[in-house]
Structure formats: structure tokens, C-alpha cells
Amino acid sequence: MTDTHNPSASMDNAAVAARMQLARGHLDRWRAILKEPSHWVSIWFFAYTLLGAVSSGLLPILLPLMIVALTHHLSWVAYVMGGFNLGLLTSPLWGTLADKKHLHRPIFFGGFLVLLSALAAMPFLPSIFTWSGLSLLAGAGTSAVATMASLFVVEFDPQNEWEPRLGWLQTFNGGGQVGGLLLAGIFVGNFKLGLICSALALIPAIWLGAKGLPVAAKRHSWRTEVGDRMRRELDWRFLAHFGRPELLGGGLLRFSHHLSLRGARRWADVLHTRFGRFLLSWFAVAFGVAAFFAYFPVAMQKAYNVAPALTSSVYALTAAIALVLYSVGGQLSGRFGAGKVYRWSLVLRFLGFGLLLLVFFLPISKTLLAVAGFVLIILSWPLQSISGTTLTARLTPFSQGAAMGLFNASGAVATVIGTFLSGPLVHFIGYPSLSAIALIGILLGWLMGHGLQAPDAVPATVDSLAAQKA
């Protein structure tokens, strides 16, 4: 008589079945993850990738190097890069035109055409006035495309799709920036070719936009300005999860067009609050570092003996690694408070610029310390960005959308002013002035950032503001 019941074999079969079920679960989860982007990504997002590669990757490296190489005038860098940053501030104009005239597609494609034309003309017109004008046009074109990119999502897609679509849109832009920085290392020996290739890269961007941009809104029932609706309904916590490229205008390429810049009119209401003190701190830091970021590829080469190809590669690699720190910054802000994380980020940034200044006074190799300082500066940005966004939302005495407007405007204006003033500084003092002014701005920002979220710190309210005025 054969024993058909084998407990050991049954247990083995059950274990195998459990493992197979677990493996199928993992496989299904990975399939869902891989399929997730297809729900939110449109083909025109790749056009925004190419914009990121050109405006945030190639231009910050190639343009300063070309200006110095062709003219030998260091101060010209500040004026040309300042023109670009000034052009980015035209974003409110494009948003207003889109709202009133419904010219989304013409503005989007026109922005690409203006940027393309400016880049193609720059190598052949070596004049400070011409370069500054073309750079201003390039910034305005970049601003037009970036503003319309956000509006294409919030006006042409249902509200419940805004956050994932905007998230993927910015992910594509950030990926383009990293790719552009890597490509910049190839073109540092031939600036003219690099700028011409940058212009040519925008041609497929126009084609991708023409192929994928929506023609009519899927759900367009606006009775009020889209900016007001987006301010009310787009969660600030979502904005905090996505970094802003610091080069060329900081957060201007993200969510800072007309629908948030209007909050600047409320500056007087917050000047004497903790929120106002934070905005002053943010302004001081942005102003201080603007000079360095206008000149950094030239400064790394001339002052620290770091080849431009190495600078762009280190920046690209560090920026890619720093993406992880956005989630880390959010976790640290939740555990220790955004105020502390903000000041910690400034300490890291202070150490980075301290290394850049220290090498001028010590008989040591400049290259290694300069690269280490540069890496610290880049790595500190995600912590600063996410903690700053969180502080904006928690300390504001009015709507979070209007507060984001003040937050973006303070950094944008500080960047423009700091960039233009860096020209005389470098001309009369030299490269040490770049890190010195950054240290001063960061120190002021750190001091003004003290106690923003102390145990007794309660975010200001409209009632408390009225009581203060009374």
C-alpha cells in the first residue's frame, strides 16, 4: 500500500508556490512602475527636455567661456549672462498674453524660434551690446517656452492630472540639464560649434511640439484667470518635491510665471513677519551666489586650474546624485523642522565657498579643493530648495500661491541684480570676489534665518498682521 500523503513534499510545493507568487507580485509591481509614465507623459515633453539641455546645461558652460576667449573681458560675462536672466523675467508677459489672447501655441513655438535664432547668431556677432541683446532674447524665448509648458498642463488637462504631469515634465527638463552639461564638455574646445549645435538641437524640439501639443483643451471651463485657479488648487507640497535648476535664474524655469509673481504686491504686508525675514534671507543668499554662477566655468578654469570639461562633468554627475537629496531634504524637514534644514544647507554652502576662497591664501593644490567645494555647493542646493519651499508655505500669512510668488520673485530679482554687479567685482578685485561675496550673502542669510521655526514660532496670520498694524 503506497502512502500518497507526504507532508515534506507538500511543504516544499507550498514554499515553491509562495515564492512564485511573490516573484509574480514583484514582476507586476515593476511592470506597473514602468507603465506609470505612459499615463502622464506626452511626446512634447521631449521638447522640454531639449530646452533643459540647451538653457540649463549647454549655455551656462559655453557662453561664459566663449565670451572670455573671444574678448578677454571678464566683466562682459556678467552683462551677457545678466541679459539672459533679465529675459527670464519676461515670463509674466507671456502668461498674460496666453490668458487674454489664447496664444499658447504661437508663444511656445515663437520662444523656440527666438532662442534658436539668438544662439545661431551669437558666435558671429562678437560685440558686448549685440551679445547682451541676443542673450536677453534667448532668456525671453526660454521663459516663453517654460511658461507655456506649465500652462499647457494646467489648462489642457484635468485638475487631477496636474501634479503627475507637471512632475514628469520637470523630470524631463532636469534630465535634459544633466545631458546638456555632459555634452558641454565635448564642445568646450569649439564654442562656435557648440552654440550652433545647441541651436540645431531646438529644431527637433519644434517638431516634437508640433506633433504632440494639444490643440484644444480637454476640459476648458475657465471663468476666472487660470493663474488664480492654479494658485488655489496646486498643492505646495508637490512643488517642494521638484528641484529648480539654480543656474540662469534659479527657479524661473519652473513655477514662477505670472500666476505666482503677482504675490509680489503683498511684500509690504510681510516685511515685519518671520516670513518677511525668511524672504530677506533667501534674497541675500541668491544675491550672494549669483556672481559665482555667472562665472563658474571661467573661474574654475582660470582661478582653480579645473578644465571646463571636468567642470561640466562634475556638475552633471553631482546634479544627478543630488536628485536623491530632494526626498532626503523632505524627510529631514519633517523630522527636525524646515528652519533647521534650511540653515544646515547654508552651512554646507558656506563650507563649499569657503574652500573656494581658502585656496587663494594657502600654498596648496587649488584643483582638488576647488572641485570639493564645487560639489558641496551643488549638493547643498536640494536641501536649501525643499526647506525653503516648505518654510514659504508654513510661514506665509496669506495664500500659499501668493507666498510662492514672493518666494520666486525674491530669488529671481536677487539673481538678476547679483549677476550684473558681478562684472565690476571681477574686473576690480578678481576671482576671489566671487566666493567672497557668496560667503557674505550666505552668512547674512544664515543670521536672518535664525529662529524661523523656533518652538514658540507661530506662522503669522492675517489677524496677527492687523494687530501689529493697530
TrEMBL record:
Q: Note whether Magnesium occurs among the keywords.
A: no
Indicate the transmembrane segments per the record.
Answer: 43-70, 76-95, 107-125, 131-154, 166-187, 193-210, 275-296, 308-329, 341-362, 368-391, 403-422, 428-447
Q: What molecular functions are annotated in GO for this chain?
A: transmembrane transporter activity
The answer to whether the entry has keyword Flavoprotein is no
- In what residue span(s) does the Major facilitator superfamily (MFS) profile domain sit? 274-470
- Pfam families attached here? MFS_1
Entry keyword set? Membrane, Transmembrane, Transmembrane helix
Identify the PANTHER family for this entry: C-METHYLTRANSFERASE (PTHR23518), MAJOR FACILITATOR SUPERFAMILY TRANSPORTER (PTHR23518:SF2)
Would you tell me the protein name for this molecule? Answer: MFS transporter
Specify the species.
Answer: Acidithiobacillus ferrianus
Q: What is the lineage of its organism?
A: Bacteria, Pseudomonadati, Pseudomonadota, Acidithiobacillia, Acidithiobacillales
